[in-house]
Amino acid sequence: MAPAITSGQFWLVRCGVAISPGDIVLAVHPQRPDLHVIKRVIRPTPGGWWLEGDNQERSTDSRHYGPVEQVLGRLMWCYWPITGLSSARKRTAD
Fold first, then answer.
1. Rounded to 5 degrees, what are φ and ψ at 28?
2. Which pLDDT score, from 0 to 100, does residue 60 have?
3. Could you tell me if residue 87 is left (phi over 0), alpha (psi between -120 and 50 degrees) or otherwise beta?
4. How far apart are CA 81 and CA 62, in angstroms?
5. Which among 69, 57, 60 is positioned nearest to 39, based on CA atoms?
6. Whole-structure pTM over 0.85, yes or no?
7. pLDDT at 21 > cutoff 70
8. How far apart, in whole angstroms, are the C-alpha atoms of residue 24 and residue 31?
9. How far is the C-alpha of 13 from the C-alpha of 88, rounded, in Å?
10. How many CB atoms lie within 10 A of CB 11?
11. Maximum Cα–Cα distance for the chain, whole Å?
12. What's the 3-state SS for the chain?
């Protein structure tokens, strides 16, 4: 699957909203608290959220560091570059 987020984009992140599988979120890396990551929610787990990158061949995600507890917010709208507003849509079945 091609990444939904590309370099150079700026996104509005909404904090404190419900998170569900398929959402793209901003989270704190569980092993490096100084690092924020953008990943897709796969499922809830007892230890937090299972997050994976869209480009699984190149992504470091929950498959490497386990569930993520600190999800800061959900990506809502891309506001730069201006090509018309686009939303972080939920993944559909392939």
1. -90, 130
2. 93
3. beta
4. 29
5. 60
6. no
7. yes
8. 20
9. 10
10. 20
11. 39
12. CCCCCCCCCEEEEEECCCCCCCCEEEEECCCCCCCEEEEEEEEEECCEEEEECCCCCCCCCHHHHCCECCEEEEEEEEEECCCCCEECCCCCCC
Domains of the chain: 10-77 (2.10.109.10)
What is the C-alpha separation between 8 and 85, in angstroms, rounded?
A: 15
Please tell me the predicted confidence (pLDDT) of residue 92: 41
User: Token pair for residue 3?
Assistant: 């990444």
Residue range 54-88, pLDDT digits in tens: 988 899 999 999 999 999 999 998 888 876 555 66
Token code pair at residue 53: 């990158």
CA angle centred on 33, ends 8 and 52, rounded to 5°: 60
Tell me how far apart the alpha carbons of residues 11 and 5 are, in angstroms, rounded to a whole number. Answer: 9
